[in-house]
Structure formats: C-alpha cells, structure tokens
Design goal:
The chain has 13 helices and nine strands. It is of the alpha/beta class and 246 residues long. It is elongated, with a radius of gyration of 18 Å.
C-alpha cells in the first residue's frame, strides 16, 4: 500500500491542474510525439502525447478521468518499459515519495530517448512560506527529511535547465504552497487532505498551529503581517522545473 492509497481518496476535488503551470510544463516537454508520465497520480498535466502513465496507487488510478492515457501500476525504481520507450519522461512532484532516488533517476534516463522533465521544490525556499515558518514548523521539519536538494537532482539527471515555477494567487492545483494568498484554505480539512506534507505530518501535530492561524485570521493579524502578499498576482514559493536533454 502507498501513502496515496490512504490520503488520495479526495485528490481530484482539490488537485485540479492549473492551466498556467500546465503551459510551462508542456513548453518544457517540447515538440515530441511520445511521453511517459511517472508517478502519474490522477493524470494532472498529462499532454495528449502521453502513451503510458505509471502509478503505484490503485486509489489514484481509479480517479483518472475517462479518456486518459493507458496506465499501469508500477514504481519509478523499476519501470515496466523497454529502453528508450518514449521521447520524454515526465515526473511531477513525485521524487520525494521514491524509496531509491538513484535507481528512479537511472530508470527515467533509461526509458527516455530525448528529454526528462521533472517538477520538484527547493526546500530552502519553500520552508520560508509563512504557513510553515510561522504556524507549522513541524510540517517544515517533515519535508526537511524527505525533500531532495535541487542541485542533487540536477546532477543525477544531468539537467541543463532549472526553471522557477511561479504560483498564481488563484492556483487551481491545491498542492502544499498553492494557497499562499488564501490562508483560510489551510483550515479546510478537505484541502489539507490533498497535501501530502500536512496529511503525513498528522492532524494532531498541526492542530495547534492551525488554531493560531484561525485566531490570527479572525483578529486581522495575519492580514496586517502579510499585506504585501495580498498585492501580488503570483510568487515564487520554491517550485522548480528541471529539464535534462539526453
């Protein structure tokens, strides 16, 4: 059983692909004919050229919409594919769940003919998000242990480019830092259920910090402290797109 067999049941209600992030991902894929999506989840951001999705969680696979690319259960560390099976292999917000990073990266390089596109985050930047810094340091510590340094990923991949992915204030994809300008969203348990950082840290652990956040929102203290954020349309909270041409 994977973590998403436990926390992924309501994933599609809060993790809807954001078209602006999708445009950046698809631009990074380039003009290719075949794509394999590793750690594919429910199929977010899969382009029409996707020939196969690989996902370990049956719960996530069951939520893939009709008409999605064919999917097989499998893990990044042992992809059920021949060498050079696709022009591009993409892997979005997945490496922190792998059990063997080096093996997974080697498999991406084995299966891709031309390019690898990987979405991750820079923990040094993301842990400074007000939510983690001021209210949920326990969750930041959880990600300190599982986040993979971007420079290490870039070295293993042989990535030539690392692009910041700026997050719009009204992002429709409810990943961990997506609600940087909508703090009340973090008080919603359904929203939190779609964020592995909070779901895995545990409700008992984060409850005191969420209570402080609720109080600060009610009193207006949060709005006073973060007035500058309310003026921004987008911001950099650490998400990074790595592109490796093989």
């Amino acid at each position: 059983m994977t973590i998403y067999d436990t926390i992924g049941a309501t994933y599609t209600s809060t993790r809807r692909p954001d078209p602006r992030i999708g445009a950046q991902i698809h631009a990074a894929l380039g003009d290719v004919r075949t794509v394999v999506n590793v750690g594919a989840g429910t199929g977010s951001y899969e382009p029409e050229q996707t020939v196969l999705a690989v996902e370990p969680s049956a719960v996530m696979i069951a939520q893939r919409p009709a008409g999605s690319a064919p999917v097989v259960r499998g893990v990044a560390e042992a992809l059920p594919l021949a060498d050079g099976s696709a022009d591009v292999v993409m892997a979005l917000l997945t490496v922190h769940h792998w059990t063997d990073l080096e093996a997974g990266i080697a498999e991406l390089r084995r299966v891709a003919r031309r390019r690898i596109v990987l979405l991750t985050w820079d923990q040094a930047v993301t842990r400074e998000l007000w939510l983690l810094r001021d209210y949920l340091p326990e969750a930041a510590a959880f990600d300190d242990d599982r986040a993979v340094p971007v420079d290490r990923l870039a070295e293993l991949l042989g990535a030539q480019r690392v692009e910041p992915v700026r997050i719009p204030h009204d992002c429709t994809d409810g990943f961990g830092a997506a609600f940087w300008r909508r703090p009340a969203a973090y008080l919603d348990p359904v929203v939190r259920a779609g964020m592995s950082i909070l779901a895995q840290t545990g409700e008992d652990v984060i409850a005191p910090g969420l209570a402080r956040l609720a109080e600060d929102l009610s009193s207006g203290r949060w709005q006073e402290r973060h007035a500058e954020l309310l003026e921004l349309d987008e911001t950099d909270v650490g998400y990074r797109l790595l592109i490796a041409d093989l």
